[in-house]
From TrEMBL:
Part of the signal recognition particle protein translocation system, which is composed of SRP and FtsY. SRP is a ribonucleoprotein composed of Ffh and a 4.5S RNA molecule. Belongs to the GTP-binding SRP family. SRP54 subfamily. It catalyses: GTP + H2O = GDP + phosphate + H(+). GO terms for biological process: SRP-dependent cotranslational protein targeting to membrane. Composed of three domains: the N-terminal N domain, which is responsible for interactions with the ribosome, the central G domain, which binds GTP, and the C-terminal M domain, which binds the RNA and the signal sequence of the RNC. One of its GO terms (molecular function) is GTPase activity. It comes from Croceicoccus pelagius. Its main location: membrane. It is found in: Cell inner membrane; Cytoplasm. One of its GO terms (cellular component) is plasma membrane. It is a peripheral membrane protein. Keywords: Cytoplasm, GTP-binding, Hydrolase, Nucleotide-binding, Ribonucleoprotein, RNA-binding, Signal recognition particle. This is Signal recognition particle protein.
């Protein structure tokens, strides 16, 4: 098994306690481990190099969020770069799987790739998907006259998928089959024609010549290269051979259900420059999914939890809460429930230091916090105190007489003076908030909390 990247990075960052910006030496040390992890995940060497250079540059000097470790911060940076390189978040889900079918029907989709890559199966899977999810009338035709029974295989799959296939005429050559398929699809008003081209065990000139000839007679709107994600470096060589020879529009990565770590995806994208549109995830005809960059990045890194944790830390404030708060402040109301919400958000966002950094306009509130002796542990204690109050008390702190304060202190395991501190802080914060409001700072504040 692979050493997980988190173990590797753990060693590098164990010695690191420093805060603030990521230092060059530390980043470089981390990148050595990332490099090994990527190579183990089968990413091609030149692609790894390019990737590491890019990420190193981006990482040096990046601020480390308060509530995460430098190692976690690096993981997030690496993850984001992976997602970006795999096609970005926009390539996510349906968008990536979107085939360009805007043309006069029948729109031709040409499938290319080596024998055994899963080309025929993927052809049937995509045909089925187009039929079922987009209501397209699809016809498939096999141009594979090399492999015995390849045409019959497609016919069988067509039957299983409920998709029409071009009747087989023995002895006909690929370009002739393509022409016949186009005429048939036109005559019978098919929306889409999928051409399953011949594969070879290796890329050779005859194969490329055949692909070019088929492409020139069928003018495909999409040319999808099918590659087996388990073949790693071979897949890269295949992609390189096809790129430039045929007008590729996208990639289908098969056998993503296997234990490949997805490195081929990164290489594919880098080598072809084309989006990965689908991932094959099994032998059944439904086993195909839109390619999701973030999922594959996670697979390569094996660090999804850390990534989502850092994401949460960076953006933990909910919009509704922000709106609610803005409204209350506008009305000159800021009760203990609001204070508690703020405390919880502060904790999530990385504590006081982080807040102070993010809130240049909130000097007053910050001073109020400091004057009441707050640190990050105190945030939690204050939360406990407010939680021990009744809703009425929270809405109207004036209700809290000596007897009630005693009850709240006992309920939260604190002292009455701690309860008083919370109340004082609340008072000072509402004062500060009123001032901000007067200064017309509400808009800025809303943006900050949104
Ligand atoms: P072709 O020679 O490129 O047309 O390859 P085939 O479509 O005949 O596929 C070869 C084998 O791979 C078949 O047994 C398929 O069922 C299997 N296969 C294709 N795609 C996938 C996939 O995504 N996952 C798994 N596990 N098997 C697949």
């Amino acid at each position: 098994m692979f050493d997980s990247l988190s173990d590797r990075l753990g060693n590098v960052f164990d010695s690191l306690r420093g805060r603030g910006a990521l230092k060059e030496d530390d980043v470089r040390a981390a990148m050595r481990e990332v490099r090994i992890a990527l190579l183990e995940a089968d990413v091609a060497l030149p692609v790894v190099r390019r990737f590491i250079d890019k990420v190193t540059e981006a990482a040096i000097g990046t601020e480390v969020l308060r509530s995460v470790t430098p190692g976690q911060q690096v993981v997030k940076i690496v993850n984001d770069a992976l997602v970006e390189m795999l096609g970005g978040e926009d390539g996510d889900g349906a968008a990536a799987a979107k085939l360009d079918l805007e043309a006069k029907p029948p729109v031709v989709i040409m499938m290319v790739g080596l024998q055994g890559s899963g080309k025929t199966t993927s052809t049937a899977k995509i045909a089925k998907r187009l039929k079922e999810t987009e209501g397209k009338k699809v016809m498939m035709a096999s141009l594979d006259v090399n492999r015995p029974a390849a045409q019959e295989q497609l016919a069988v799959l067509g039957e299983q998928a409920g998709v029409a296939t071009l009747p087989i005429i023995a002895g006909q050559q690929p370009v002739d089959i393509a022409n016949r398929a186009i005429s048939a699809a036109k005559l019978q008003s098919f929306d889409v024609l999928m051409l399953d081209t011949a594969g070879r065990l290796h890329v050779d000139e005859a194969l490329m010549a055949e692909m070019k000839a088929v492409a020139s007679v069928s003018a495909p709107k999409e040319v999808l290269l099918v590659v087996d994600s388990l073949t790693g470096q071979d897949a890269v060589n295949v992609a390189q051979s096809f790129t430039g020879e045929v007008p590729l529009t996208g990639v289908v990565l098969t056998r993503m259900d296997g234990d490949a770590r997805g490195g081929a995806a990164l290489s594919m994208r880098a080598v072809t420059g084309k989006p990965i549109k689908f991932a094959g995830t099994g032998e059944k005809l439904d086993a195909i999914e839109p390619f999701v960059p973030s999922r594959v990045a996670n697979r390569i890194l094996g660090m999804g939890d850390i990534v989502s944790m850092v994401e949460k830390a960076a953006a933990s404030v909910k919009e509704e809460d922000a709106e609610r708060l803005a409204k209350k402040m506008a009305a000159g109301k800021f009760d203990l429930d609001d204070l508690r919400m703020q405390l919880q958000q502060m904790t999530k966002m990385g504590g006081l230091g982080m807040i102070a950094q993010m809130m240049p306009g909130m000097k007053k509130a910050k001073q109020a916090m400091q004057s009441s002796g707050m640190d990050d542990r105190v945030l939690l204690r204050m939360d406990a105190i407010i939680s021990s109050m009744t809703p009425k008390e929270r809405a109207n702190p004036a209700l809290l007489n000596a007897k009630r304060k005693k009850r709240v202190a006992a309920g939260s395991g604190t002292q009455v003076q701690d309860v008083n501190k919370v109340l004082k802080m609340h008072q000072e914060m509402s004062k500060a908030m009123k001032q901000i409001k007067k200064m017309g700072g509400l808009k800025g504040l809303g943006a900050l909390f949104g």
